[in-house]
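Hi F.,

I've been meaning to write this up properly since the lab meeting, where we talked about keeping a consistent format for the predictions we share between groups. The idea is simple: the sequence comes first, exactly as it goes in, then the structure tokens exactly as they come out, then a line or two of notes. No screenshots and no reformatting. I'm using this chain as the first example so we have something concrete to point to.
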Amino acid sequence: MAKHKKPGLAPGTLIYTGPKREEPIEIHVFDYNEDTFLESGELTDDVFERSQSPETTTWVNISGIHDVDIVRRIGDELDLHKLVMEDIVHPTQRPKLERYDDDSLYIVVKMLHYDAEEVLHQEQVSIVLTRTHVYSFQEQPGDVFEPVRNRLRAGKGIIRAMGPDYLAYALLDTIVDHYFFVIEVMGEEIDDIEVEVLGNPTQSTVARINTAKREVMTIRKSIWPLREVLSAMSRDDSQLIQPQTEAYLRDVYDHTIQVVDMLETYRDLLSGLNDLYLSSISHKMNEIMKVLTIMGSIFIPLTFVAGIYGMNFDVMPELHWKYGYFAAWGIMVSIGVVLLYYFRRKKWL
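Output, unedited:
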């Protein structure tokens, strides 16, 4: 269960407010340029010493922010604003872009993924961009950045020849590309729900529709503010974002717009499916009522005839007639046949 920050604390107080975690923090350091590449799993002092050297780009990925000492150490070494460090350990931030000085940009983005049981999970990723470094902070181990790591190891593309701003773009692009996978899974779920609604809707169908609607709202809340972040980064007038990277950021912005458009379509579809479910249940209820009404319409006159001849009077027409029993049956069968024929003529059956 997530903790809540106590009210009244000084701004910049580092208190982790996410779910309780006990797993060890994982650290991956990539130091590279076009000709060299170094990968390690330790955050040593020389990593910070290289922060003043423009010869290489360094990516430090921290998986786990429940150890606030790591965040404090990095923040002190980079002279980050206290509010940035506070936001890093508060994994409930809205996607945003903050610039407190000319030497760093702070980016918050939401990483979405499905687990093995197809439950949607949302995780905050904080990215600190400096002139030579990129620091990324995740809530827990496991992410969607493996394609970026593989490109760095293999030296494919231009990523090793570009600076830290391009690396920050690559991380954002990978997160946004994974949104399309999440959207694809959601689209398949909506198709299955539609088939179920049109075929044999049950009470569980409503639960599936409501679950899908909540997931759409979760994704929408994660992606909608990201448009502003990418738009601001592509227009940033600092020296941290190079002009050649701005074109790539605009491409990610376009992808984000596509995801938002698809989400709006899915939201409308789910609203339509909810109405279709109610209409289908109402139609099924009407069919049941129609059958019951027809059966009642047939048996009401039969019950009338049976009631008349079931009265206990001594003086009654046809009471002592030898063929009275068969005549009563004939009348009731005739009435039933005539009513069935009439209902079929009216296409009520």
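Notes:
The radius of gyration is 35 Å.
The helical segments are 45-49, 68-78, 82-88, 146-154, 164-199, 203-234, 243-308, 324-345.

If this format works for you, I'll send the rest the same way.

G.
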